[in-house]
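re: that complex we talked abt at group meeting.

here r the seqs, copy pasted straight from the sheet so there may be weird spacing, ignore it
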Amino acid sequence: MSSVAVRTVAAPAAGVGFNYPPMLLGAAVLLWGWHTGALLYAVPMALVLEGARWFPWSLALSDRDFERLSDGTTLLMLVLVVYQFDQHGVRGVFPVLRWMPTVVLVLVLGQVFTTRKNIKLSALFLSVRRAERRGQLEQVPVLDIRHPFFVLCLVSASAGELRSPAFFPLLIVLLAWAFWPIRPRRYPVILWLLAMLAVGGGGYVASKGLIELRRAVEPVLMEWALEYFRHRRDPFRSHTAIGEIGKLKLSDRIVMRVRPQNTLSHPSLLRQASYRRFSNNIWLAGAAKFEELTPEGGGTRWILQDVRGTPERRVGISTYLIRGKGILGVPNGTHEIRDLNVEELHRNPLGALKAVEGPDLVEFTAVYDPARSVDGTPQEAELAMPQEYREVIHQVADELSLGGLPPLSVVQRLHDYFIDGFQYSLEGATRTRLTLPLVTFLKESRRGHCEYFASATVLLLRAAGIPARYASGYSIQEYSEVEQAYVVRRRHAHSWALAYIDGRWQDVDTTPPGWIELEAADAPWWEGTYDLLSWLWYRFTRWRLTDTAGESNDWILWLVFPLVAVLIWRLYRRGELTRRPSTNRNSRLVGRPQEESGFQLIAARLHAAGYPRREGETLAAWFNRLQQTQGVVGAAEVQASILPLHYRYRFDPAGLGPDEFQRLRRDVESWLAQYPLAKA
Amino acid sequence: MLQRLFFKNFHLAYRFDQWVRQRFTPMGMIILSGAIASGMFAVDTRRTLAYQLLMLAAVVVVLGMVAAPFFRARIQARRRLPRLATVGEGFEYTVALTNRGQRVEKGLFLSEALRTRPPTFEEFARTELPGGERMNWFDRYVGYPRWAWLMNRNRGARVAAFALPDLLPGAETPVRARLTPTRRGYLRFAGFSLLRPDPLGIFNARVRLKQAESLLVLPKTYEMPALSLPGNRRYQRGGVALASSVGDSQEFMSLREYRPGDPTRHIHWRSWARLGEPVVKEFQDEFFVRQALILDTFMGHRGSRRFEEAVSVAASLARNLSGRESLVDLAFVGDKSYYFTAGRGVAQTERLLEILACVDVCMDQSFDALPRVVMEHAARLSSCTCVLLEWDEARQRLVEALNALGVPVRVFVLQSSDVNEKLDTGPMAAQAHRLHALQVGQVEAGLLAAASAEDSTSPVPLATQGAA
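got the structure back, here u go
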């Protein structure tokens, strides 16, 4: 490792060698400290930063040393990020931002305590480092690290929790402080002052305007984004796709995860809402007002119906809420909801459950008894028949001889009727005449999606004198080995009928069973990857919403060690690749200004002796001319030994080793001593 | 197809990048970066006050841009360039600025506007970035680093805006500008960009001053000791030397000091008596030993460092071999031959360097096109120095043919920096000391080693030379 040499140099005169406005950086650090509550750190930081201009010593840091400082800063940043995310979850980005100036300070001190005015970007960025090693850069860009540090202090300060009204005017003061030394001489001072006033006034107006804009736009954007990405059940109406032409296709997005808890079997249907009236291809709930339920057991347990002594089946359900609201999908016969972390739960007489003021993801347990019904008793609407369908429904009912049959036999006959004589299809009906779509379904096409089957079944049940409702929700069919749970996708959305038989509402699903396979056949080839990402997002959301008060997810800290180990291995592996004998980058002197090689002294002496270099003449051509044409003594020696070394020093990417550089300096001194060269 | 789509957007991205770099001052770039950094956190105005910083920065930038269109300056500029420049060697030149306006112009900056031709898709696809094989797959596929490298190469020089002194009305003010060519060939100057920062010093208003001009940039050359010349002892005489008559013979040119190996019948006895040391008569055809230089330009892609180093080696040899003892009067560059019949010394060398400055890779023909051209001029060859890109069968056949003609040959083969194989001598087995492998990145050291190797194995003592 190259040693860091410390040498005593004369302290530069104030303002000489430092073109940064005095005290500006210290002021920015103090602003950061004040606004973030880190004044205890900010004061010594500011003192050290500004005190560098009076410090009599300086460090001789090489490019390699800056690379190591940069890598060390990266490691510190990594530790800070992991720690803050562990403590605060995704909101840890703000504490990271607030503390970043302390991490970057090391790099800044590395520059202010050297004589360098800037740092090569290859020391800071891996991509530039690699491009430099590949020889793709004619000139490596450099950066005065104080500039981005100044910006970082201001941005970090803005993330402070103080939110003081003095922050804005102080920002303007700092900006004016930074602008004043670089103001163009072309303009009078009054114009500059007016411009700064305009900046302050305009900035204030723009800030206020931005806040108002956010207030106006945010709700609209949220509504649009969440509507687009999330499915939402309306408990008051269900717009069916009955009658639509074209292929019905819902997405493969996973919307729920189901885990049976105390039974090997699982419910096949999760109901979200049910409806009574059918009109214009729309099912309506009618007068079904939601009423708030009172929670028990710490506010996470909701009793829908007090039942005792019945066999209890439990199933765990995870589902997303939209802006904290959503309709829950539960099995038929659910009488209790446990571990539901929402502020309010409402229920309507048709059994829909609406959660209010909850997190983005809720996980609850539904306790149900398939032999029990907790929904209300049937009303007159559940026997009503839409006028437009009366004739055809009764005709079909007569064909099936439903009249007079026991209710269970009616259900069985309808099952057989639809499964034997109908086909499931995602394609919409092709209407050749002005007929009602349900009529076309029953009499002509005999194919359609689940909404057709459910609607027709409800109406036929009613024609048979059995109260019936239209239900919508999801079908549980797919088990995921990765997630160890049943996954419910949006394309598993389903509709079926509810029949009131033997004093309880029972599921009647007459959709031919092959519909799941038909839907799955349309799944895209990337579904596996998509599911994995969905699972990762689900796990992340769970972790994010886990209550971390008083505890931390310590497991994430264990990520630090392998990550740091990988980073260190990569850093030093790269170090191994660069440690070639011929390119010892620790001590290559490359591309320095030619003054440092001493060659300009030889040029100056020749110029003074009357042998100037011509305009546009290269050094090689110059010395060739001096030697061959003008016979200048000493020109041959320069050409043979000094000039090649000087060229390599200036232009060779590999540069000169320290020995060669010393030899160059010695040769120059020897030449100067040997050839005084009187004026020609 | 995706690559073409990316390619179409590169120019837009590049122009935007250049526009930002030129129009924003260093402080402006700081403000811009502050705006971007604060913008990431400004969206949620409830969490941070970064939106205040963003708005301040945005207002500063907007004020600067609003002031830009009002810049008017009646200034003419004229540059005085040198005749030639060399790659990698910065030079200064004068720009004369004349203020035709009525008031003093202060605080202005001037920048050269170099005409930069964007590469075609075919050029882009057939260029390999130096070190590109070590890039990650994304950069290799998208190709923007390759595009940026091509644009920088096409631009040809590093230029930076510099501050102008106060320009008095009606006066001509000369300023010194500095430029460093980064590639050989012609630099095309379109004119100048005159820049004026806004009152806050953030954004530059710009006025373009047209002055089109070209400058030829010669290839980089390496310093190397004089090489021992194969065929040095071969004198090619066009006429009969009249040993007894000085000044009568048309071929007799001048006298010079005796060198070991000179025929004694050329000794000018009268001058020896007067000077006390042997002096010989120097004949016109005797003096110059004709050197042919062959540069291999046959390569499948552009952008190769190996090719550029080959050109530099050829240029170095052109200078090195042209001296008092010899002359490169025949050059084969690609599939073309160049015969220099008039002039000698610096002018002829410069002519050859100008040719080398503009040489490009020959991608459409194979190496077999070159031997045909060389053999057409076989009668003129006295010795030949070859700078080759490969040492394959085709190239070895050319060298073999030259050997069969009795032409002394020296061969330099350029190898990539990661190749360090010893060359199979092949047709150079009998004179292996004249077969040299030069590695990219260590060419100068290789040339020095080659000179040492030839010096130590030359059977003929070196003639006294003017050079060291």
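couple things i noticed - The longest strand of chain A covers residues 493-501. Residues 1-18, 548-553, 575-591 of chain A have pLDDT under 50 and may be disordered.
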